[in-house]
Amino acid sequence: MQIDELTLHNYKIHNNLKLKLGPGITGVVGDNGCGKTSVITALCFLLTGEVDTDTKAASISLGETEGWVTGKFTLNDKEGSLERHLGSSKVILKYNGVIYNKATEVKALWDKLLQIDSSIFNNVIVAKQGEIPLLFSGDSSVIEKIFQKIFLVPNTERLRNIIWENYIKTCPPDKIEEDVKELQLQQATAATKRNAMLADIEDKSVIVLQDDVLSSV
User: Fold this and answer.
1) What tens digit of pLDDT does each residue of 90-123 get?
2) Using one digit for the tens of pLDDT, what is the confidence trace for 131-140?
3) In angstroms, rounded to a whole number, what is the distance separating the alpha carbons of residues 152 and 4?
4) How many CA atoms lie within 13 A of 73 on its CB side?
5) Do 146 and 131 touch, CB atoms closer than 8 A?
6) What is the pairing mode between strands 98-100 and 14-20?
7) Cα(161)–Cα(158) distance, rounded to whole angstroms?
8) Which of 42, 127, 157, 217 has its CA 20 to 30 A from that of 61?
9) Which H/E stretch holds residue 2?
10) Residues 6 or more apart from 22 whose CB is under 8 A from it?
């Protein structure tokens, strides 16, 4: 998936911010307090529906009654858009020529399209403000924890269970590569055993036949 455009309307300090994004890596720079982190948290809200405040309404700009985040994206060579509101449960997903505005339908389709659990997104993919400096804090346990989070190597049992249950278990099994030499050896061994068995059966048949001839004389 590629995020092509991100719009923040009455989201925290941004009353109307529109960002055009392109392929590759996008850097967000600016002075302290200009709302760089809000762009990241808005993207998290758009993709997962979760906020970094106590409630969604708490992320609405001061003095406003409603706010929302909209994103345009490209997925599987098809354009789409997603809009999430902060003051209500309103959510609109447009994809492949179809508009979805029922929360349950949007969640089902979006989960299928995004294919990533919100716990993984929030705890692994996004390093929040203040965490990168902790890499240099000098506390080895903190450094290891942040390193694992930023570089996608989580060590928590919960994340491992999510990855296992939602991804690994549902993946098709790997195609087993056949070892030709091993198969040939197994076939040769089986043929040897078969020949030995047939020879043994033949010997026993001759003995039985000889016994029958002797008894009839």
Assistant:
1) 999 999 889 998 888 888 888 888 777 676 666 6
2) 667 766 667 7
3) 24
4) 20
5) yes
6) unpaired
7) 5
8) 127
9) strand 2-11
10) 4
Residue burial 177-203, b: 16+ Cβ < 10 Å; e: rest? eeeeeeeeeeeeeeeeeeeeeeeeeee
pLDDT tens per residue across span 40-86: 899 989 988 889 899 999 999 999 999 999 999 998 889 999 999 99
The strand pairing partners of 73, in sequence order, are: 3, 80
Distance, CA of 52 to CA of 90 (rounded, Å): 19
Tell me how far apart the alpha carbons of residues 72 and 79 are, in angstroms, rounded to a whole number.
7
CA 207 to CA 9: how far, in whole Å? 97
Residue 109's contacts (CB-CB under 8 Å, 6 or more residues apart) are 93, 95, 100
- Rounded CA-CA distance 182/40 in Å is 54
